[in-house]
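note to self — DONT lose this again. spent like an hour looking for the file last time. sequence + predicted structure for the chain T wanted, 292 res
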Amino acid sequence: MKTKLPLLFLLFCGIANAQTYTFNTVTPIPDGTGTSCGSGNSAGNVSVSLNVPITATITDPTKVTINLDLVHTWLGDVVAELGTPAGGSCALIKRLGAATDTSCGDSSDFATGNVLSFNAANTTAINVVTPGAAQSIPAGAYAPTGGTSTYPTDIPLCNLTTFLNGVAVNGDWTMTLYDNGEEDTGSLNAWQIIFTTGFDLNTQDFLFTKRISVLGNPFNEALTLKLNEAGNTSTVLRIFSIDGREVFNKSYASNDAGQTISIETGAWQQGIYMLVPEIDGRRLNAIKLAKK
């Protein structure tokens, strides 16, 4: 029989509030040097950072938005690289319109105030054809977009779903702007990260009861639990998805202290789950889990 957690239970296990962090100091992007574009030039670059003081882990990348306000007179020059506190990085914008490693790409503009909003749920690429040459890219919600050239090869184009999932948010996030061509120039006006309600699994939610611990949270293909006390005559473990569906229910007989239980979770969808343990007929506090 399928069972659901009461709605009240789910409400009291809510996720962190929305958080917004903004850098808004106008910062010039140094011009590239050389006589060509792309790999034929030495790119100019500048990096600025945002400090995120909260301790949490991203479990829903669609609830993280990166906004970028920049100006540049030749967008084919530009690479915009997002960096995480742990050191991972990828490109939100990568030499738009560039077909070869040395091509200069599209000559459209990035215009002040036309904020480009990037999110894992966005599917619309930045369209360099519609505005036409020397026209401005409109503000909008975009997927990370690049030219067909892979240069620079050490900065892959972002897949925000896989890039952000499981990332610890605490620390310095960076935005690095590169200018891969000469003559045309630009500036970063502002950039912003918005963590919308429900993006995270707060580490405060990893608190264990005295009787049971979670080993590895977030988890992936298997969830491992440890029973901390000996002599329990009955342990019942029930796990619910965030929408209240019961995905696991199993009873265990008496145990030794330190006994571990491994639960296969490969078929479970990514997201938030709630473990509701019951030992010797007594229900313990629920523990929030995350499948990455």
